[in-house]
Write a structure and sequence with these properties.
The structure holds 2 protein chains of 2 kinds. Chain A is built from 12 helices and 13 strands. By secondary structure, chain A is α/β, with parallel strands linked by helices. In chain A, about 35% of the residues lie in helices and about 25% in strands. Chain A folds into 2 domains: about 220 residues, Rossmann fold (3-Layer(aba) Sandwich); about 60 residues, Alpha-Beta Plaits (2-Layer Sandwich), CATH 3.30.70. The radius of gyration of chain A is 25 Å and the shape is elongated. The two termini of chain B are about 20 Å apart. The chains are: A alpha/beta, B mainly alpha. At the A-B interface, strand 2, helix 2, helix 3, strand 8 and strand 9 of A face helix 1, helix 2, helix 3, helix 5 and helix 6 of B.
Chain lengths: ~325, ~325
């Protein structure tokens, strides 16, 4: 189990993580979400004792990471797939890590098999693709057969087959009773993999709840309403009626209306009352991605702007 | 990227009611903050029973967990140092320089030359250049881990950072000493067999093998400590070249002024090249055998190691 209490990290004037408290429990995959620069990697590094928190603490099974008697046998981590010496071949890379925690050499061959790198075990990791690097990093994390696993962006650079493999691996690791803590930007992937979510933005906790709760709490559910295209005045009439009833109406580019704040039967009744015909009235369920976007829209550090040059030429 | 001065201000920004959120919050009072402030529940997010169940079913590995010790780190560092090409390159060039230049020099000497100097003097000429190779390797042992990011993997696998540094120092020192003392010994043996004659070989040379090997190996350890502190290969190698070359060049300038003459003399006495010359008795005059030069290097190296340990525990990686 991972437990963070009041975790804060400042780099000079910049606060990377502020007063973060959460628990990650065994037996489930816990997703760790947040926009770029929100402090996910900093938090991961603090969990692993690489960075020292400015205040607060984080423990694994009751111990700070650096006080664990044999850390790699209890915690496995993939932080950065590129954090290897490229001149060393894959097997030796894993071997030196195994020796550091007294893990027998045959375990190295086992994990190479698990991640499917046995054929390139004697190849220098400099020549590895991003996906192969991820597999090597996952192999290193699994080396100690640990109870707690941390993965920072594990599916980066993997092909669809690799993504499916990682998804199933995470789930089976959690099913064995391990604590699996995974950070990712890929919402669709998290929706399929994680049961529980911890969301941060600008270094602060935004949510700590199950995926289902997260979607329903932050749902962007709306109704799509379309009036006959041939009669624009009907649209205006309906907009007025819905707004009066307390709904929010946003016109969509294709002429439909996006209505929030009113249940579907009520919209239908109001349209009927206003004598407006409907061509479409459809419910729209939010995805995890939409829910996430809504939650974090105030906490995004790096926002793109439209390139005037390309916008005008297109 | 901008961060508000006080992080406490941020939730307010997040709480700004957004029009589209109303649908989900249809029953909520108007103006209530919506969506964002999912404050962590004060209790555990799941009912205690679920937590207890999860904790009870937590995975335990069938492979027994043993306490780790320095021996594990030594084995790991030995695997590391022998599995990269830079080690083979630097040590290969070192051997080529010491043995190559040594034998070339030995071929141009006569037995009479060794009436007042040891048989290992030819190795000294190669060592003057070869020490750069050991410095480079020493720096790379630590700084290459920082350069590649491997250090985060290493310190995750062994959060006992001091143990990793200790293992690096021991493995590097033993490797460097075996290689350097071995090559000096080889040059000494070949030279003595080529130059056996009346009057030669009166100077004992076993000490020069040990002290010469010790001196260049310690320079390498100093480089390793500097690499660990600077965390940058090029920077650390440059710094070490400065340590070797500046005290050898600067005295020429410092001699100009009377006030700096004593400093200049100390520098020219204790610089790396002159220290090696003294150890090998190559200058023919000094009988001290370079012991005080060796002591100075030991002290400097110990100070650098202490600095490396102190920074290692304190800094983030």
């Amino acid at each position: 189990m991972i437990e963070a209490v009041g975790l804060t990290k400042r780099y000079g004037a910049k606060t990377a993580v502020y007063n973060l408290s959460f628990q990650v429990r065994p037996g489930t995959v816990t997703g760790f979400l947040g926009p770029n620069g929100s402090g996910k990697s900093t938090t991961m590094r603090m969990i692993l004792g690489l960075d020292t928190p400015t205040t607060g603490q984080v423990t694994i099974g009751g111990y700070p990471y650096r006080k664990l008697p044999n850390a790699p046998r209890q915690v496995g981590a993939l932080l950065d797939a590129k954090a290897v010496h490229g001149g060393r071949h894959a097997r030796n890379h894993l071997l030196c890590l195994a020796q550091l925690s007294g893990i027998p050499a045959r375990r190295v061959d086992e994990v190479l098999g698990v991640v499917g790198l046995q054929d390139v075990a004697k190849k220098r990791s400099k020549g590895f693709s991003l996906g192969m690097g991820q597999r090597l990093g996952i192999a290193a994390a699994l080396l100690g057969d640990p109870q707690v696993l941390l993965f920072d962006e594990p599916v980066n650079g993997l092909d669809p087959e690799g993504i499916l493999w990682v998804r199933n691996l995470m789930k089976s690791l959690a099913a064995e009773g391990r604590t699996v803590f995974v950070s990712s930007h890929l919402m669709s992937e998290m929706a399929l993999t994680a049961e529980h979510l911890i969301v941060i933005g600008r270094g602060q906790l935004l949510a700590d709840m199950s995926v289902r709760d997260f979607i329903s709490h932050n749902s962007a559910d709306f109704a799509r309403v379309r009036t006959p295209d041939t009669e624009p005045q009907q649209r205006e009439k309906l907009t007025a009626a819905l707004t009066e009833a307390g709904g929010q109406v946003l016109p969509e580019p294709d002429g439909a209306l996006r209505v929030t704040g009113l249940p579907l039967p009520r919209i239908s009744d109001l349209a009927h009352g206003a004598d407006v015909r409907l061509w479409e009235l459809s419910p729209h369920q939010a995805s995890l991605e939409e829910a996430y976007m809504r939650m974090t829209q105030g906490a995004v550090d790096y926002r793109s702007t439209v390139d005037q040059r390309t916008a005008s030429s297109s | 990227m901008t961060t508000p001065e006080s992080p406490q201000q941020q939730p307010q920004a997040l709480q700004a009611p957004q029009p589209q959120q109303a649908y989900a919050q249809a029953g909520a009072p108007v103006g209530a903050p919506m969506g964002a402030p999912m404050a962590p529940p004060p209790a555990a997010p799941a009912p205690p029973s679920a937590w207890e169940q999860a904790m009870a079913n937590a995975y335990t590995s069938p492979i027994p967990v043993r306490k780790t010790h320095l021996g594990n780190a030594l084995a790991s560092e030995w695997t590391k140092i022998k599995s990269v090409r830079s080690t083979m390159w630097t040590l290969g060039i070192f051997l080529a320089l010491v043995i190559g230049i040594g034998l070339l020099a030995a071929a141009n000497t006569t037995p009479e030359n060794y009436s007042d100097m040891p048989f290992t003097v030819p190795a000294f000429f190669g060592l003057m250049l070869g020490q750069i190779c050991l410095i480079t390797l020493g720096v790379l042992v630590t700084s290459s881990e920082y350069g590649t990011g491997m250090i985060r993997t290493t310190f995750t696998a062994s959060p006992q950072r001091y143990r990793v540094l200790t293992a690096k120092i021991v493995v590097f020192f033993v490797t460097a000493f075996v290689v350097s003392a071995g090559s000096i010994l080889l040059v000494g043996l070949v030279t003595s067999s080529m130059n056996s004659g009346p009057g030669s070989g009166d100077v004992p040379w076993a000490g020069t093998v040990l002290k010469g090997g010790l001196y260049v190996s310690l320079l390498g350890v100093l480089a390793l400590a500097v690499g660990s502190m600077l965390r940058h290969s090029a920077g650390a190698i440059t710094a070490m070249l400065g340590v070797v070359l500046v005290p050898a060049i600067l005295p020429a300038f410092l001699m100009i002024w009377e006030s700096t003459q004593s400093l200049a003399e100390k520098m020219s006495d204790y610089n790396a090249i002159n220290s090696l010359a003294k150890i090998f008795g190559a200058d023919g005059i000094d009988g001290s055998g370079g012991t005080s030069q060796l002591v100075v290097l030991v002290v400097v190296t110990l100070v650098a190691i202490a600095g490396a340990y102190a920074l290692l525990e304190k800094r983030d990686v």
